């Protein structure tokens, strides 16, 4: 195999710069697309604690058993998440 063909010739600095810019642009585009896919597929962000939500969680702390506290927290969080989801859907 000979190296006389044009594909084996060295390129100038302009061509190398353009190839580097193209590679960088492609990499950023792919990374951005992946971030967007994962962001839209991820669950909703954490809920902002409102005074009412904090009061409900404080009532959970009054329970004596750890399991009861955990279950109360889960119920409060589930209700808050469902409410915020309903608000978001109504806003569409």
Give a verbal description of the structure.
This protein is mainly α and 92 residues long. It folds into two domains: 11-42; 47-92. Helices cover 71% and strands 0% of the residues. It contains three helices and no strands. The chain has helices spanning 13-41, 51-61, 66-90. The N and C termini lie far apart (64 Å).
Q: Measured on Cα atoms, how large is the radius of gyration?
A: 28 Å
Low-confidence stretches: none
Number of strands: 0
User: What is the mean predicted local confidence, pLDDT?
Assistant: 82
- Give the overall shape, derived from the CA principal axes: rod-shaped
Q: Helical residue percent? A: over 70%
**Span between N and C termini?**
64 Å
Strand content: under 5%
Number of helices: 3
The number of domains is 2
Main β-sheet, in a few words?
none
Q: Please state the structural category.
A: mainly alpha
H/E element order: HHH
Report a brief summary of the structure.
It is built from three helices and no strands.
